[in-house]
Design goal:
Shape: elongated
Helix content: 55-70%
Distance between the termini: 20 Å
Radius of gyration: 19 Å
Mean pLDDT: 86
Low-confidence stretches: none
Largest sheet: none
Strand content: under 5%
Number of helices: 4
Order of helices and strands: HHHH
Length: 145
């Protein structure tokens, strides 16, 4: 019987998730800053949103790398490469927002939240990867003697 979690080891699924993540980021960055409804205002909630969104993206990309290269891949491949990719992605996102009416963009603290979130996602994926492989692998065959 196959593991119901086998889909977790599907690189195509994770790659599609990353493409969806990037597309959604572009769309979200294209929206004008909507005036918030009166009520409870949470200070710096935008930083929490940046951190959380990039945590998800970092987790997805690191999972793809772990599935392709495994944990035997170098630190540069598993941690540094996705970190650099998301640092550039975050900077480009901030730059993109400068062209969106009602958005300021180029906020260094938004970018910092982006890269810290991505780093946490990357580290989380690398820590969870052995469990992911175990869940997505079929159970060992029991030989009858």
């Amino acid at each position: 019987m196959n593991s119901p979690f086998k889909i977790l080891g599907n690189e195509i699924l994770w790659t599609a998730a990353l493409a969806g993540w990037a597309g959604a980021l572009f769309l979200l960055s294209s929206f004008s800053n909507v005036t918030p409804e009166p009520g409870i205002e949470l200070p710096h909630i935008d930083k929490v949103l940046h951190f959380s969104y990039f945590l998800i993206g970092g987790f997805i990309l690191a999972t793809i790398i772990c599935l392709k290269r495994g944990l035997s891949a170098s630190f540069k491949t598993r941690i540094l490469l996705p970190f650099i990719i998301f640092a550039v992605f975050g900077a480009l996102d901030e730059y993109h927002q400068t062209f969106t009416p009602g958005r300021s963009g180029n906020d260094p603290f938004d970018w910092l939240a982006d890269i810290l979130g991505a780093l946490c996602g990357i580290i989380s994926a690398n820590c969870l990867h052995p469990r992911l492989l175990k869940l997505s692998s079929p159970p060992p065959l029991i030989s009858e003697n």
